[in-house]
Design brief:
Organism: Roseinatronobacter thiooxidans
Radius of gyration: 15 Å
Protein name: UPF0260 protein LY56_00896
Strand content: 5-15%
Number of helices: 6
Shape: globular
Family: Belongs to the UPF0260 family.
Distance between the termini: 32 Å
Pfam family, one: CxxCxxCC
Length: 147
């Protein structure tokens, strides 16, 4: 990977190289979870119902390069749309944290140097999801993410 040493501490998100931008992803898989919004409170509720392309044995998209073509509702995060999408990202998301002027968590792979540190910290969705193909949309509320 062609990234500068601790680039996330000195480089604004919009000035990162594509490799640095991608390296920010901790591999938790939470952004691939379907979310519900309470119409009364506007509270965002993460479910364990994952996108049909999400592979919960790797916590990665099964077809990352073609995801938008296969799943038109998939949101491709960019520095330009981060401001409007940050609300929908998990609280632990590096993109969201850096956008809000916060630090990466100590378990983040960029901090630890260990690509499995997100899983070891128990933050990832490794083996914790159900595919949206298996659950009717009206039943998603029965699958809240209980952390």
């Amino acid at each position: 990977m062609d990234t500068r040493h601790r680039f996330w501490e000195t480089t604004p998100l919009h000035q990162m190289t594509p490799e640095e931008w991608e390296a920010l992803c901790d591999g938790c898989g939470r952004c691939c979870l379907n979310k519900l919004e309470d119409i009364d409170t506007e509270e965002l509720i993460f479910t364990r119902v994952a996108c049909r392309l999400f592979d919960d044995t790797t916590c990665r998209c099964a077809n990352y390069t073609q995801r938008k073509k296969i799943v038109p509702e998939c949101v491709v995060l960019t520095p330009e749309n981060l401001n409007e999408i940050a609300y929908w990202m998990p609280d632990t998301c590096a993109y969201r944290l850096l956008h809000q002027g916060q630090r990466l968590p100590e378990w983040h792979p960029l901090v630890t140097g260990d690509p499995d540190s997100t899983h070891k910290a128990g933050v990832s969705m490794l083996d914790r999801t159900v595919s949206e193909h298996a659950i009717a949309v009206e039943d998603w509320e029965d699958y809240p993410l209980d952390d």
